[in-house]
Description:
This protein has 332 residues and is of the alpha/beta class.
Amino acid sequence: MLLRRELLAALGAAGALPAGAALAQGGTQGASWPTRPIQVVVPFPPGGQADVTARPVSAALERVFRQAMPVVNRPGAGGIVGTASVARAAPDGYTALMALSSHAMLPESERLQGRTPAYTVEQFAPIARFTADPTVLLVPAGSPWKTLADFVADAKRRPGVITYGSAGNYSTLHVAMAMLTGAANLDLLHVPFQGGGPALTALLSGTLDSLASGPGPASVHVKEGKLRALANWGSQRIPGFEDVPTFKELGYADVEFYIWTGLFLPVATPSEIQERLRQASLQVCETDEALKRALDTAGSPIAYLDGPAFVNFFNEDSARLVRAVQRIGKVD
């Protein structure tokens, strides 16, 4: 598939640089990196899954590099604006991207809309995957829906009335819900937001009826009794959400979806810098107890992958999600 060939070629091109060429490309930065703060761009507003992961990861990496790693939220167009800004950034190791599984879906959505993509996946080098969480279907605790069966039955009685939010058209949250509406033959009203954080805020305020969310941002609100989780998109029940069944358990065999978070650099970043960041990422995931506690508390335990394993996962997952975007088709 084209996506796989493009990504492997890009990773191979970056990894093929010999040490001398990498240092020549990065100048003294290759030998001494980092000598100044490293900006981590989250292409969504605060409060969503990428943001919840980026902040403790950046704090842990700061302890390794002894350099600041500020998280910069740069939302817009469902993640396209911030991601494209990293694609255009200098490949010097001082601008990184914390992306979601929508990373490969967004260029395909641009093509469906008849636009030239603002970025393509071959512009990025995958460094490390930190989390991989199935989404959960959330509704306000005060809603009449106690179970998924209640929700589905009401949606069938009132087609086009029950709303669901997302982080924008073709975002991870949109695709997850599209999988459900297709499998259950539901007509729900899609309300796109600038990111998962604002959509979750709308759900909490009662201005939105339902939302697919990563378990991290949702966990505290479910525990506090503000939201109710009806089902999850994973292959098994989620720690901390043990009483929430999977869609597969409830008879929807093809409804499976994960929100993962991964760190990327511009593909032309010297290979030595890529490897240093990759090794530091592995180090903090294995040894930094504060990072582990933060992600566990957020409901998104570490699910680390790097190198070829992350590339292979990215290719397989992205190919499936691109097909899902193509099934959604053009959104007016």
